[in-house]
Design goal:
By secondary structure, this protein is of the alpha+beta class. The chain has 14 helices and four strands. It has two domains: 120 residues, no CATH class; 139 residues, no CATH class. Helices cover 54% and strands 7% of the residues. β3 and β4 form a beta hairpin. The protein is elongated, with a radius of gyration of 21 Å. The N and C termini lie close together (10 Å).
Length: 301
């Protein structure tokens, strides 16, 4: 077993109020060494992994997971205490090279004494989502500057909020435009840690045609009253302050929890590298960054 906490301390795209929980969970994973003693365990697991991967259609999941498999950078992990919100952990060196992905055997139903599992499909997708996380972290400087990516993710966030609020409670296009503006605002505040004044300039510069200049002209001055909010968990209060809804803020939070389940909710309110519920257009952008990843093949053994 390897305890790699000191060599690879948990890091995230940016600070959020759930990072201590995520960090604590990630620190509780031991990694099974790839040595003679564990050779048969890894052989059994990787045979199943390869067979299932071969059956997948030619798509980004198959291609990118195959790349990291060919580099022998997929490991099995064993949690010290079973976490509820981490299914895999990426290892990144100080010079931003991907050194491996450890799959939590308990969460993914892998027998760490034999390498056998009945959920090999989940292991493949866990590897892929962990690779997305690693890519977002490695390329965080360039990703911060990618306007197209942020438009797509903030719009996806807006669609989640619309579903959680309920379309029956939004009576006009103006209300929807305001929710969209607030979604973009809290996206930049929560995930990118941008300042209030800078977010207003982003909205004017990049979203005028997207949302409608008339709505931005009307609502931007009113955003001063929400400038102290910084977390996605504040979004229901923002809706109340901006008079979009007038019910308890807890109702929206409960609705999001029901939609996303606890693990999905952690993904949503965590840092950007945990926000992995991405669609095809976003996936294509992230794939371009994946192609630029570099690897350290000896840091984890």
């Amino acid at each position: 077993m390897q305890d790699l906490d000191k060599k690879f301390p948990p890091s995230f795209f940016a600070d959020t109020d759930v990072n201590p929980i995520l960090r604590s969970s990630e620190q509780k994973i031991f990694v099974l060494k790839k040595n003679a003693e564990n050779k048969q365990i890894y052989s059994t697991f990787m045979d199943d992994f390869s067979n299932y991967l071969m059956k997948l259609p030619n798509n980004p999941v198959k291609n990118h997971v195959k790349t990291i498999q060919n580099k022998n950078l997929i490991f099995l992990g064993i949690a010290k205490i079973k976490p509820d919100n981490v299914i895999a952990r990426s290892f990144i060196t100080t010079d931003d090279k991907l050194a491996g992905i450890a799959l939590d055997s308990q969460q993914l139903g892998v027998d760490p004494t034999t390498g056998s599992t009945e959920s090999i499909d989940e292991c493949i997708y866990a590897t892929y989502f962990s690779l997305i996380r690693a890519t977002v972290y490695i390329h965080k400087t360039k990703i911060r500057q990618n306007k197209d990516l942020h438009k797509l993710l903030s719009t996806y966030l807006y669609m989640l909020f619309i579903k959680a609020i309920g379309s029956d409670k939004l009576y006009s296009e103006k209300q929807k435009a305001l929710v969209h503006i607030l979604s973009i605002y809290i996206y930049y505040k929560h995930y990118l840690k941008e300042r209030h004044s800078y977010i207003l300039s982003i909205l004017e510069r990049d979203y005028s045609k997207f949302i409608g200049k008339q709505y931005l002209d009307e609502f931007l001055p009113a955003l001063d009253k929400i400038q102290n909010y910084t977390s996605l968990k504040d979004f229901p209060k923002m809706l109340i302050d901006m008079k979009v809804i007038n019910e308890s803020p807890n109702i929206l939070t409960i609705s999001l929890l029901k939609m996303l389940k606890p693990m999905g909710f952690y993904c949503l309110i965590g840092p950007l590298d945990y926000f992995d519920k991405i669609q095809n257009a976003v996936e294509e952008i992230i794939a371009e960054y994946m192609d630029k990843n570099t690897y350290d093949l000896t840091a984890v053994k």
